[in-house]
Amino acid sequence: MKTHGMIAAFENPAVLLTAAARVRDAGYQHFDCHSPFPIHGMDDAMGLKRSPVGYIVGGMAALGATIGFGLQTWVTTSAYPLVISGKPMFSWQAYIIITFALFVLFGAFGAVIGMFRLNRLPRLHHPIFYSELIAKASDDGFLISIEADDARFDEEQTRAFLASIGGTNIELVRGEG
To answer: What pTM, to 2 d.p., does this model score?
Structure first.
């Protein structure tokens, strides 16, 4: 059985928030907090940066709008230049609907694909699920897990550290592969 990390339970959301900041300050990089609901301020306590998904969505939306507008311009001015009802070849007002539709479509694709890539999904199984304690995270548990591939991870020191910041039911997560 391979060691995948360590997990500890905390009393309530406030204690978990404080413990997350102490884990971050201790230099741990590969850790996560688990709770049955979002906790305001947890991102800051864990030292997480702002997500780049917004930039990905904005870039993809701009790309979609550019493709939509550019394709319509090329078709009506170069590929199939037709004068219809005396309108000019470049009648940009008619292009707005398709440009907007591709703006939204590419932005949506950017959001989904960006979220999947940044979250490293699809991942069908995470080693933390070998833990008996993780099931409480969806009901009434407030947990911190530290992964074994963290540079500071040592079984004895990590166990002592989690106990010193208020962790209870500390469990070593072991499993296959």
So the answer is: 0.78
